[in-house]
Specification:
Length: about 300
């Protein structure tokens, strides 16, 4: 039985003045997932995240958290949400621990949570240092520690790896995995980096020009690659092969004097093609499957939608 979504938007629209930003966005975030919210810069990711937190009011549509309409139960529902939007606001002259403590006291959270969240994000050994001495990656983790103070069920993270060095990106990635697997958090993480999302997400939504152009599990997105895969055949004379085997090479494109490209159909078709070429006395120098990367698939989705919009 399919679980009810932890977060859902229904027909979400937003305009900035007269300029439309979001068009009928219907997100669905499953409990226990890491939802990678992907899109080029300016596609509408940050606007959507602000709408999810009630920082902006939608022009039309609704946001539902934990099965309830946020417009009616905003304060109660947002108590179960932690967020890190852009760079965290920190007091640079205070230590990491003092930054967490300041927020903990304002929110009335139990005192033991300060040590717990600092340990959770890997900052316990550096909690005595002033925030001005923290690297960008450490600052992001400190912001995440503050977002985790109330032990939220849902985390909303807007571009949390933006500007981080490779070590910082790896640390953030591993932290998100642990939060999901060991602490049961559901996480929505926005990014324009498909390669990073691929390594951490269970589900993906792709937004372009304010429209959701794909939504599904990571395997669903990966299956789109197979539909765009091609065989590359290397032989002596591409035209001769295509004339000898018109059925098997239907739809083939001559990419060079000895190279053919054709859509990948199945393993059986590939095996039959190799056997037929050999039986016809044609040399077979190479036969390989080329699949687009997830980055190629992401670019294809966003470019196709952009063309349709224009």
């Amino acid at each position: 039985m399919q679980l009810a979504p932890l977060l859902e938007t229904r027909g979400l629209h937003f305009h900035f003045g007269k300029r439309p930003i979001l068009h009928d966005v219907n997100l669905r975030v499953e409990p226990g997932s890491i939802y990678g919210f992907l899109g080029p810069n300016g596609a509408g990711k940050s606007t959507t995240m602000r709408l999810l937190l009630g920082l902006l009011r939608p022009g039309a549509g609704s946001v539902h958290l934990f099965g309830h309409d946020m417009a009616r139960h905003r304060v109660t529902l947002l108590n179960r949400v932690g967020a890190l939007i852009e760079n965290p606001s920190l007091y640079d002259h205070l230590t990491g621990r003092e930054n967490v403590e300041a927020t903990r006291r304002l929110r009335g959270v139990a005192a033991h949570r300060t040590a717990e969240v600092l340990e959770l994000v890997g900052l316990a050994d550096n909690a005595h240092r002033p925030a001005r001495e923290y690297s960008l990656g450490m600052r992001q983790r400190l912001g995440l520690a503050i977002a985790l103070l109330s032990n939220p069920d849902l985390l909303l993270l807007d571009e949390p790896t933006n500007g981080l060095d490779p070590n910082g990106i790896i640390e953030m990635r591993e932290l998100l995995r642990r939060l999901r697997q060991e602490h049961g958090k559901t996480i929505v993480v926005s990014s324009h980096l498909i390669n990073e999302i691929e390594k951490v997400a269970t589900h993906v939504g792709v937004i372009q020009e304010g429209r959701l152009v794909f939504q599904g599990s990571l395997p669903d997105l990966q299956r789109l690659q197979t539909g765009r895969a091609r065989l590359v055949l290397e032989t002596e004379d591409a035209d001769t092969c295509r004339n000898l085997l018109p059925r098997l090479l239907a739809g083939a494109t001559v990419a060079g004097a000895g190279t053919l490209w054709l859509p990948w159909l199945s393993r059986e078709h590939t095996a039959e093609l190799a056997a037929a070429l050999t039986a016809a006395g044609q040399p077979l120098y190479g036969l390989r499957l080329e699949q687009p990367s997830l980055e190629d698939t992401f670019l294809h989705l966003t470019e196709v939608k952009a063309d349709l919009v224009q």
